[in-house]
Write a structure and sequence with these properties.
The protein is mainly α. It has eight helices and three strands, in the order αβαααββαααα.
């Protein structure tokens, strides 16, 4: 079982491989995401906010990654995020973004499994391996 530090290194190395995520050499002071208290406000209050008012509700972690979203209204939101918000506001923010990530993982399964074994994680089975297992179990 990998340690917390090994998992942190694995996530950092894994994130560097994703083509639409750039690791910033000079991180931004704050993440671009808004925190939960902002979304608890009423819609009229949110619409009436100025840029200075919004700063009060921004995530205080450093913006380490720049995420480039899919074009169109159903994609994520491009921006500079901390690690947590990169996943929630970017990679897994919508079905289209999640599908893009899953397709990329399937295409790069060899590289990703090598990285997983490097950090003591079990490899993820490929589609072919899953199909073989399912056909053997049913036959």
């Amino acid at each position: 079982m990998p340690t917390r530090e090994q998992m942190r290194k694995f996530r950092a190395e894994f994130t560097e491989l994703i083509p639409w995520v750039n690791v910033l050499k000079r991180p931004k002071k704050h993440c671009a995401a808004l925190t939960v208290p902002y979304y608890r406000l009423g819609l009229k209050t949110r619409r009436a906010m100025t840029a200075d008012d919004l700063e009060k509700y921004r995530c205080r972690h450093r913006g380490l990654f720049h995420f480039t979203a899919l074009k169109g209204e159903r994609g994520g939101k491009s921006g500079t995020y901390c690690e947590t918000h990169l996943r929630t506001m970017g990679i897994f923010s919508s079905m289209r973004e999640d599908e893009r990530f899953q397709r990329w993982c399937e295409k790069n399964s060899f590289t990703l499994n090598a990285l997983r074994t490097k950090y003591g994680l079990p490899p993820v089975p490929t589609k072919r391996e899953l199909e073989r297992t399912n056909s053997a179990a049913s036959g």
